[in-house]
Amino acid sequence: MTKRVVIAICCAALCSLFVIGGWSGTAVAHNSLAIAAAQSKTAAPAAGDLLDINSATKEQLDALPGIGAAYSQKIIDGRPYKAKTDLVKKKVLPQATYNKIKDKIIAKQPTK
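RESULT FIELD:
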């Protein structure tokens, strides 16, 4: 083989490695992001991150999964709550909707 053919083959092989390496690196990066996103959705928030249903604004309540304008207004109208389970007991929310938000909310009591 001539020197040019050998160089061309080597260049083609290196380019192939970069292309394959680039694709696999991208796939690994996307998989890492997907795993991190899934973990953040399933992990329960810390106590400081919980939304107080006794003081939350309509907009904050609207941002909860399954809660829209109608439910957020019903939550506000039903205040105060002694416990977050009062949302179901007082028939403000159906059980299925409550199940979506129960790990994201708290019913803080006023300090005496």
